[in-house]
Amino acid sequence: MLKGKTALVTGSTSGIGLGIALTLAKQGANVVLNGFGAFEAARDEVAAAGVKVGYHGADMSKPGEIAEMIEYAKKDFDGVDILVNNAGIQHVANVEDFPVEKWDAIIAINLTSAFHTTRLALPGMKARNWGRVINVASAHGLVASAQKSAYVASKHGIVGFTKAVALETATTGITVNAICPGWVLTPLVQKQIDDRAARESIPVEQANRELLQEKQPSLQFVTPQQLGELAVFLSSPAADQIRGVAWNVDGGWVAQ
Ligand SMILES: NC(=O)C1=CN([C@@H]2O[C@H](COP(=O)(O)OP(=O)(O)OC[C@H]3O[C@@H](n4cnc5c(N)ncnc54)[C@H](O)[C@@H]3O)[C@@H](O)[C@H]2O)C=CC1
Ligand SMILES: CC(=O)CC(=O)O
């Protein structure tokens, strides 16, 4: 279904981004990966779908490097058709104890990077009159939790950004939407489970259960593949008129 399209997925060396990249590749999309750490395993896994795969190591907190990544996609892939703004980090602390540099990093990576990728990818999408921008927000883009002020602000921000750009592109073939996952068992969440286990002197399995019980009524983690399948749907013709939506996939989290 996505043969001939190129997807750029930021933060796709692990977790949700890798799951989305893989699922889009299985539908035939060529993929540009991005993110920190070893990327070779991710690249090989995605390439096994039989598509062209590239990698750019841009630091998403650095506008200059983001511009270089978009140039790379233009040069080696003829541009970006599906932009998945996924890179993100977390830090948990009360606001008065929140390290200033952590606040700045969270806003830069989780929110401002999407402004840069989007403003740079849109002209090519407009020229082709087709595009998809899919922003990975969070249940925390719709509701808050204590000790996550920067993260919640960044995710509410990206939901607002999604709506504004969806309006600006409403008469074009470009759609802009957000996905709002609940808990997904990735390194970002594993750290919170491990911290809870250490803090409460309980086994990791119990900390895992408590984390789900606190927020996610289904008591099951969302999977990266389920989010990938939603990205595939949002990239399909059936979703041509889905615009400016913040779509929660959260086991019932925000229904409460
Ligand atoms: N895991 C969860 O329960 C949920 C996660 N999310 C969001 O999903 C997105 C992905 O998170 P996960 O897969 O859980 O985390 P993860 O830690 O597994 O993956 C994060 C990815 O972002 C990359 N990254 C981090 N900082 C970067 C930077 N400065 N420049 C470029 N790449 C960078 C990492 O290298 C990695 O590839 C984030 O935006 C997160 O907020 C949203 C809802 C739930
Ligand atoms: C649900 C999420 O987005 C993850 C978190 O809050 O750490």
Q: Give the DSSP E fraction (strand runs of 2 or more residues).
A: 5-15%
- The end-to-end distance, rounded to whole angstroms, is 36 Å
Number of helices: 8
As residue ranges, the low-confidence spans are none
Q: Kindly state the mean pLDDT as a whole number?
A: 98
**CATH fold node name of the largest domain:** Rossmann fold
What is the strand tally?
7
How can the largest sheet be summarized?
Answer: 7 strands, parallel
Question: In CATH, what is the class of the largest domain?
Answer: Alpha Beta
Ligand catalogue? 1,4-dihydronicotinamide adenine dinucleotide, acetoacetic acid
What is the CA-based Rg, rounded? 18 Å
Looking at CATH, the homologous superfamily of the largest domain is: NAD(P)-binding Rossmann-like Domain
Helical content (DSSP H or I, runs of 4+):
40-55%
The structural domain count equals: 2
User: What CATH architecture of the largest domain would you give?
Assistant: 3-Layer(aba) Sandwich
Judged by helices, strands and strand pairing, the structural class is: alpha/beta
Order of helices and strands: EHEHEHEHEHEHHHE
* Molecular shape: globular
Describe the 3D structure.
It contains 8 helices and 7 strands. With 256 residues, it is of the alpha/beta class. The protein folds into 2 domains: 205 residues, NAD(P)-binding Rossmann-like Domain (Rossmann fold), CATH 3.40.50; 37 residues, no CATH class. Helix 1 packs parallel to helix 2, helix 3 packs parallel to helix 4 and helix 4 packs parallel to helix 5. The longest helix has 29 residues. The chain is globular and about 55 Å long. The site of acetoacetic acid (AAE) has 11 residues, from helix 6. 1,4-dihydronicotinamide adenine dinucleotide binds next to helix 1, helix 4 and helix 6. InterPro entries: 3-OHbutyrate_DH, NAD(P)-bd_dom_sf, Sc_DH/Rdtase_CS, SDR, SDR_fam. This is 3-hydroxybutyrate dehydrogenase. Belongs to the short-chain dehydrogenases/reductases (SDR) family. GO terms for molecular function: 3-hydroxybutyrate dehydrogenase activity.
